[in-house]
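Worked example 2:
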Amino acid sequence: MVNPKYCTQCGHPLPAPELRDKTTICAKCKVPIATWWDEDSQTFRTNREVIMPYTPPLGSPTTYSGTGGTSTPYAYRNGAEGHEFEVKNTQTVEESNFCGALIVLEGHFEKGRLMGPQTMEQTKKMVAMTLDRSLNKPDVREHLAKNVHIWMRLQKIFNLAVPLLVSRSLRELYTEAGVPNGLDVPESATLILKNYDILREDLHYLNNLLVISRNMLAIKETAQEICAAVQFDKAVQKLVILCVNVTSKGYDGENVTEGDRVRLLEITELYKKLLVTCLQHTHNWTMGNDRFKMSFWFEMLFDNDLRNDAIHELPPDDLNVEKVFEEVKNWLRRHNKKDDLAAELLAKYEEEVPAGHTAGNLPSPLGEVDRDNVEESTTPVWKADLEDKYEQDRLYARVSHEIDVWWKRVRDANYDGWVVPMETVEGAVERAETCKNNAMHRYMPRGDEHDHRYDHDEQDDQQQDDGTDDQYEHDNRSITEDNGEDDEGEEEEEDDDDSYVEGPLRGLLTEIPNILDTKQIEALHMTVKACIVDSMGSGLTPAGENLQKTRCKMFLALDCGKNLLREMLVFIAVWEQTDQQFIFQITAQIIESFHHNALLPYAWNSLRILKDIVSPAQTVLLRLINYMFRARKDSPIYDDIKDYNRDAKLIHFLYNYFRCRVVPDCLALIAAQAHIRQNKSHPSDFPVDLWDMERAKDGLSQYLDFISVIAEIPEMRHLLIDWECVYELVALLKALELGVERKPLVDPRRTGAPGSTPHVERPYDDQGHPSPQHNVPPMHDTPHKFPWAGIKIQILIILTALIAPTNPRRTGPGNPIVQKQLLDHGGIMPLLNCCVYDGHNEYLKERATLTIKFVMEGCDEAQRFVRELVPVKAAQANAQKARQQAVNGEGGVGMAGRVEDKLEEFNRQLKSVHLGKDSGGSLAAEGLGLNLPGIESTSKGKESGTNGNGKGKGKGKK
């Protein structure tokens, strides 16, 4: 057997064989050679001999100069200093194997590719074996978790690996301050392709090591304390930054070959996998430990820019972020007591450091330590005039005085009582009219064209005479816009567009929802939930503070937290998460924790975007609130008056916003549609594009769903009735009737042969059959024809819930208060108009029938209103009689044809009058088979003729 020239543990050169003895150790890894090489037999030791304590021959020195004061039969000589130290091998087989693998990997990342392929292959097998056993064997996991040597080796490996990965993946070099921004994407792609092989290998190693450490953290307190003491959590945070920087940068697929694209995607996926493991590691590190939760919050919510940006249209919150930073830092300094077992293991490791066979000294604690472990005050006292900030915070005993003051300033305005009243209906009407008027001026900047009515027939004639086309006209208008006041309108719209782009998002974790999918991101949501949801907390501190609530307030108080919340909400919309999916339910619990802290109004306002009526993030937030209130139905939660008031105040805030902001802006958009439909404005003047209309409709639909849920909760339904919710619903129905054309069962404009299409009667269409607009873009480019599909159905569902009897079988007269509100706001005619088929709202007639039934039952005024609509039916009977007389009269075919044309024109005018003068409801009610009180008595004279005012009773002539 040839004497080894290199250490099998680290690969470091060994002294010559003639200079070695049984006490020689490796100069680098400090491992005795006798643990793996037998000088007597000149052979390698077996695995059993490796783990057995080395017993020197009789007569060898056994003195010990360490700090134990006792002798031991196992000692080795430190060749550098000539001292002898005690070394006891108490590790299990798995610990020894894993330590050996870590030493090899440390040399791999420190010295580059110094290790041979066989050594790395064996190391890979040892790591894979340790990973499997740490996952499936609790005793192995516990032994590994309590081994400080292993944690130190892991920390050293990751601190060595991160700079190497940065230099091989990103253009800019690594700095101690973290990974720099402003990365050059093409050069980074070239760098990754150049280092593809080594990157793939290193990322596999690091991910496996991180999975093992994640499993070790399942031991909770002891492993968490050791992980923090060796500052391995800091190394993981650096790795998170690196993974985000690599995976968030796209690559130009046109400039790389197919093979290069596959390699780039493979490295990106490996980085994503490593990022997921980092999130899982962080979740295990913070689980059940308030100190480490706060430490994670401290790293996540504070960045280099210690300030908050202003929120749209909101007064400044005056939060001093620098003060919050200092107060949280002082709280962490005061609460640094370690777990007893962890403290014992760390102290034992420190004693073994002088022997030289460890991974080195423990890292120095961050920050000052001379004032740690000071006795905490149990009664919070704030002394504003105290200059010593640490002492001031110690006496206050809570996490942050600045956060507490901020919360009292921004929480729900009605937190202590009903301070903010609901906007009145009169005020809502004024707001709606103002929005309509402003929409005409703000969104349609062509001032000289506002009063023009666009008659398409005249345009056709003019085009035939002049030979001009719309393209020239559009170009002419665009030139006009560049002069005078039109520039201001354009600048205002550009400013609105800028509201979507607010620069790079701040925060350590903010970009992660844009990188991972629904399964990969679960650890992030679970970590946030564990930090702020009350059920995951540990109760009150001696000072009476709920740390879960404090972290919840910090999450919304700081920009990094608000940005992460926005991305988490948008993530649900992008991935179309349903109510039953894990991410949606976890986010719902996070939102409910905001509600328990009276911070949902602030969160709602912080998610606003100036250009949107309801921003996408607000829409998802409202959907989560709907989910929360839907769980309230048939539950005893409202037996507690505190819970009832908390929910009622949130409903008050959201409905007030609906009345003051959502409905007026939606009515303004629908009014703009009506202007174009009535030829008062040009289609190109419509204020927004189709994407904006989709977002407006989504927000309105989600709001109506919210109101529908509240209307189904018996304890909350009266709030909607007291606030006259009927006004908004009726106003929306009226606006949709004017601004949106119904979708007929068969569209006559899409058929070829005249007469082949069955006639679809539209008795309440204000335009009849307008001539088609020429040179109008196709439907996907015509936001002025946006149908607002399904909105009428939602409105009718809410009206039915409000007006229906409250008994279980819904029998008897409807709610008299709602019936009166419907009559006061002119709601009967919009309901009758809903009895006409509309393809944009499925089962509209059936919904309208049910609503009208409850309106009519027990309401004499509603029945009398419908009876007065009979003269319109009489006018149509007169028109039918005149048509028959014209056909059978002496005028011949020509005369009959001319009379027929006049009658058709009269009928078209009559239809337009039906909607404009609130008449014709009886036709909708009777013609569609409604059995309504007050109509039945007048429907018996179908064969009798009438005079112009409906009072004639003579027989009709044939």
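The longest helix spans residues 641-677. The chain is about 55% helix and 0% strand.
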